[in-house]
């Protein structure tokens, strides 16, 4: 059951990445935005990686607690907090030290449509996703479902 949820997350995010990329490509052509295929692929991939992170938080929390409400209730604030850390770090020095660990900043903070996907950020977020899913898998396997 846990493996199926992980596979569903990856498949769903992949479909959304393809749909997002296709929409960007179509609207770029229609509106004369001049976005190249590489820029579109970078943007869609960055968005997908952030979605994988948020989904991995939900799966890990759900596996640990058995509660869908807790999974949703912690994944959404994790995404919002990641965004806020990135946004606030740009306007206040108090948040700047936290910015490099924000998954939002790591994959979306350098504007991937304009500058491409940062490899170190993508790898860092994928590593966090792997850690979350492994930890969730361990907790799920140890849960007493009786």
The portion of residues assigned to helices is over 70%
What separation lies between the terminal Cα atoms? 15 Å
- Encode the helix/strand succession as letters: HHHHHH
Total separate domains: 1
Would you tell me the structural class of the helices and strands? mainly alpha
**What is the global morphology?**
globular
Number of helices: 6
- Biggest sheet: strands, sense, closure? none
Per DSSP E runs of 2 or more residues, the count of β-strands stands at 0
Unreliable parts: none
Radius of gyration: 17 Å
Strand content of the residues, in percent?
under 5%
Mean pLDDT: 94
Structure description:
The chain is mostly helical. The protein has helices spanning 2-31, 37-65, 68-89, 103-108, 112-115, 119-142. α2 (37-65) runs parallel beside α6 (119-142). The longest helix has 30 residues, at 2-31. The radius of gyration is 17 Å and the shape is globular.
Defining traits:
146 residues; mainly alpha; 0% strand; globular
Please render the helix and strand layout as text:
Blueprint: H1 2-31, H2 37-65, H3 68-89, H4 103-108, H5 112-115, H6 119-142
How do you describe this structure in short?
The protein is mainly alpha-helical. It has helices at residues 2-31, 37-65, 68-89, 103-108, 112-115, 119-142. The chain is globular, with a radius of gyration of 17 Å.
